[in-house]
Amino acid sequence: xxxxxxxxxxxxxxxxxxxxxxxxxxxxxxxxxxxxxxxxxxxxxxxxxxxxxxxxxxxxxxxxxxxxxxxxxxxxxxxxxxxxxxxxxxxxxxxxxxxxxxxxxxxxxxx
Length: 111
Description:
Blueprint: E1 11-14, E2 20-27, E3 32-37, E4 42-46, H1 47-52, E5 55-58, E6 101-102, E7 108-109
Antiparallel strand pairs: 1-2, 1-5, 2-3, 3-4, 6-7
């Protein structure tokens, strides 16, 4: 019988099957524990089933990002806005054509 309390972001190993998974969410109202296996498969246990599992705490595997094709560069801080040095780029170097534009009877722009 399992006495481990599930924690979000914690990794566990099912001693019987050898499967390794992470708890990704806990729904106290619904009584479910959502998990994600190393291969990316998502599942859930109800509280009664969780208590019947033979689990041991585990470390996150080194290659747990592999199914998601993530690497270190992908883990940038999403709260930081990317602002380029020159916001307009080459568009700021374009000179408008100096020509008469006819925009109708009400508007006319000339040089």
